[in-house]
Structure formats: structure tokens, C-alpha cells
Please model this.
Amino acid sequence: MNAMQEQLFLELRQTKEEIEISLKNKQKKDWLTDIFEQELADINCAIQKLKDGNFGQCEISGEFLPDDLLKMIPTLKTVKDSEFLEVFCKKTIH
Model:
């Protein structure tokens, strides 16, 4: 792992812990629970990619995603996903 990936790994682990605590403390499932669970799945995927050494590669083409995008959205999976950044910045509540 390079320095940027190590930093992202630490941030992802911290965010994962925060989401897990929030989910554990929720009294009942609601629309926010679904968003937390989706984000947690994305974070777990990114953490596994960092461990496996293929973090930052497009899952479709295999090309490397721009570091600037990965710094903003470390859970980015494909180049195509970068075309829909608003999905990562704000998930729907419906």
C-alpha cells in the first residue's frame, strides 16, 4: 500500500466502526438504516480491495481510477460510477 492508500484504509476503518455503532444503537429499522447498510457494504468492499492489492482498479475495465476521485470517494468501483457522483454524495431516501 502506498501512503494515500494507507490513509484511506484508516479512514475507511474508522467510518466502518462509526456506522456499525450507529446501526447497533438504532432502536428500529428506518430509511436511514438502509443507507448505512449500503455504505457499510461499499466500505467493506473497498477495505477488502486494499487488503487484496487491487484498490483503485475499475471493476469493469481494470484501468486505474484517478487518485483525486479515490481520495474523495474511496468506495468508487468503476469508471462508469464516476459519471454518477451525485449517487455517492447523496443517496435517495425513497
Observations:
- DSSP finds four helices and no strands in the chain.
- The two ends are 38 Å apart (CA to CA).
- The helical segments are 3-25, 31-52, 67-72, 85-89.
